[in-house]
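Need tokens for this chain, all 124 residues.
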Amino acid sequence: MEVRVDKYLFAMRIYKTRSIATEECKKGRVTMNGAEIKPSRTFQVGDKFSVRKGPITYSYEVLQLSENRLGAKLVPEYLRDITAPEQLEILELAKIAGHSGRDRGTGRPTKKDRREIEQFISSI
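Here are the structure tokens for all 124 residues:
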């Protein structure tokens, strides 16, 4: 049995819709053995492929085939995540950097700041 790449990526919940999976293949973000693959190409059991999402390249191995979208709990029976630890470390660093936020008082005033400013101006 063989399954189209775009159908499999959608069924394994890597992408939210099949059309997004197709677009990502066309943009060259899905590769097999270092070569970009088209959405119409087929996967077979044992194939290994990579998906680039943001700064990270996830790697997967096909364990079983399915054309139908699966529940999240069933995905590990069909797909094995073989992403390198270095890639996952990049993800953790990105999460830490993203939570730095802005310092209080910089940027636009908050709603509370605006109310305090209006109260100060009206009291003058």
